[in-house]
Every structure is written in C-alpha cells, then in structure tokens.
Amino acid sequence: MFNPSRRDQFLPILSFCESEKEIENKTLKHKILTFVGTEERSKELSIGTNYSTRFLFECEGKKYYYEFKNIRLDETCEKNPRACINGLVFLQDVDTAKDLLIGRKVYIQPESTRIDDTNNYSGYQDVAIPTNLEVRITAIGIGNQICPVKIIFKDNQDHSFYLELAFSRTNSGMD
Fold first, then answer.
1. What is the pLDDT of residues 82-133, one digit of tens each?
2. What superkingdom heads the lineage (predicted)?
C-alpha cells in the first residue's frame, strides 16, 4: 500500500511509466500497488554509460515506477544495504498478523505503548503500562513503512492501546 509519511507527502516518489513524469503522492495515497518487476536503463553520455534501475508497479491498470539513479540492479543492495522505496507499506505483514493474532490473549512486554491523540503533532501519545500486561488483540491496522503492522489491543479494563511492529522488514530500510 502506498502510504507516504508526513515527511514524504510533498516530494514526488513515483513516476508514471507512460509519460515518465512524477506524480503527486496524494494521487496514489492508500492505494494498493502490485510489484511487477524491475528494468535497468542505460544512457550513453560523453563520460561513459550511465545506468539506472526502475522498480515497476501497477495500480488500477496503470503502471508506475520508482527509479534508483546511477546504479545497476545488481549493485543496489551492495552500495546501499538500507535501500527502500519511501511510502510503501508491505501488506503481507499486515495480513499475516490478522490471520495469526486477532482475538488472541497475549502478555505485552514493552513498558510503553501508544494511544491515538489528534491534539499531538505526531498523532499519538506514548503511555506507560505495566510489563507482562495481559491484553486481548482486537484489531490489526496499517502502520508505516518501517513498522507496517499496527496491533490494537485492550486491557482487562477495556482501555485501548496499540503497538507498531515489523515482521519481515521488507522495504523498511532496516538491515
């Protein structure tokens, strides 16, 4: 799913394959993009050959790409092991969490969780909780690029909290 952060909302991330022009991020916000492949482009310059790698996506019958400039496909991870495409949230982690966790009782290990807070600039507030708190997972939502799984749970007093986690770390920019 394409879900650019506040920091990424004004700089175009993807380009339209047909015209090779950048598109506004709000055009694809909250839409599901399907990865369809990669392509390597080369351009002859007076100083030699310049390569770039495009990651291709499809959404609602249209094709888009993200381009890593001045790099070949096989060099992408070697030169930048934390390479990622901003704004993309890996939905398979979210689906896996839904299948495995909704309705389960678990014991929460972190000493703090979050609650939504529209009055806060970040949109949430950190809240201290006791370690080993027994909770019931009520829902799974979409987090962000780094932590795509938002686990929503309630304690035995019906207070609602959430944690954001990464399972596979696909496109997270983490090692």
1. 778 888 888 888 999 999 999 999 999 988 999 988 898 888 899 999 999 9
2. Bacteria
The DSSP-derived string for 52-77 is EEEEEEEETTEEEEEEEET--GGGHH
For 19-49, write each residue's pLDDT tens digit: 999 999 999 999 999 999 999 998 888 888 8
Q: How many CA atoms lie within 13 A of 103 on its CB side?
A: 3
**Torsion sign across C-alpha atoms 58, 15, 172, 143:** negative
pTM score, two decimals? 0.74
The amino acid present at 105, given as its one-letter code, is K
Cβ neighbors of 102 (< 8 A, separation 6 or more) are 137, 138, 139, 140
Q: Residues with Cβ < 8 Å from 156, sequence gap 6 or more?
A: 134
- How far is 91 from 170, CA to CA, in rounded Å? 10
